[in-house]
Amino acid sequence: MEKLPKIGLPILIIIVLTIVFVSKSTKTIGSGEAGVLYKTFGGGVVTDSPPLGEGFHLVAPWNKVYVYEVRQQEVFEKMQVLSSNGLEIKLDASAWFQPNYDQLGLLHQQKGENYVARVLLPTIRSAARSVVGRYTPEQLYSSKRDAIQEEIFEETKKIVGNQFIQLNEILVRDVTLPPTIKEAIERKLRQEQEALEYEFRLEKARKEAERQKIDAEGKATANKILNESLTEKVLKEKGIQATLELAKSPNAKVVVVGSGSDGMPLILGNQ
């Protein structure tokens, strides 16, 4: 009976060690994440095989697993850059990105867990300075924002694509100019708009004058043709037809045939 406690203690120790071993040998990867395996006695970071996917994994307790988010993420950056004429512009942009899944081991080995601050953000700032420096404040304020956004995206993607990062989009959310420059641009835009409106009114007036001229010329031509077609015989025939129509009217009247200066009938009524 005295030997039972002595036998039970080693068993208890074994059970505890087993629990500790198992707890240290398991790793659960969450949704939208992946794990990079680091083998302490096996060459360090595993780069020649895919990362550990979502779910439960058994890992030797002397190894480590570094977990990365592999879903699309967004990072914001506010920058001060110079335009083509040396004016300071404030740029508010964001980037949609995610690590390259199949190269996650290389990303961890060469760039580390802080790869966004080490690689992505400096590249965005450099590309933004390069691109904005090609444009004037007027272009940045009005018509070129989409072009600037696309150029920053292309230049950033060209660099980070070789750094195991997948860049999905660059969004230029705001461009802030110095107040005096902004006011000058807005004043110039208003003046240009007023000039366009004035040109529109002039063009409208010119077209209206042209229309009236064409209308008057048409009426004059019609009158000329009508006058040339109204011969004496035609007029007499029209007068006779009118006399016959009036004679049918119930109103009292006197018709004197041939009493006009041109031999046309005269119609005298009591009204």
From TrEMBL:
Q: What is its main location?
A: membrane
> For this UniProt entry, what's an example GO CC term?
membrane
**Positions in coiled-coil regions:** 188-215
The UniProt record lists the Band domain at 24-189
Transmembrane stretches, start-end: 7-23
Keyword check for Coiled coil = yes
The reply on keyword Membrane is yes
An example of a Pfam family matching this protein is: Band_7
Topology term for the membrane? Single-pass membrane protein
Organism domain of life: Bacteria
Provide the protein's localization.
Answer: Membrane
Query: Which InterPro entries does the record associate with it?
Result: Band_7 (IPR001107), Band_7/SPFH_dom_sf (IPR036013), Prohibitin (IPR000163)
What does the UniProt keyword field contain?
A: Coiled coil, Membrane, Transmembrane, Transmembrane helix
Query: Which PANTHER family does this UniProt record tie to the protein?
Result: PROHIBITIN, PROHIBITIN 1
> In its UniProt entry, what is this protein called?
Prohibitin family protein
Give the species this sequence originates from: Aquimarina algicola
